[in-house]
Amino acid sequence: MSFPVIIHGSEAEVFNSYSTIRDGVMIGAKLILADGRIFRYTHAGGTALVVGSLNQGVIHTTNFSGEAVATAAAGARKLLGVGSTTGSVAINQLKFGYVYTDNTTDLPMMQVKSNSAIVHNAASDAAQYIELFTPIPTALVGGTDTLCYFENPWEDIVVKPASTATALAVGICKIALTTLYWGWVQTAGPTTALYDNSTTALAGIGDPVGADQAVAGAVSGVAADSEDTVPIVMK
Question: How many Cα atoms within 13 Å fall on the side-chain side of residue 75?
Answer without folding.
Answer: 1
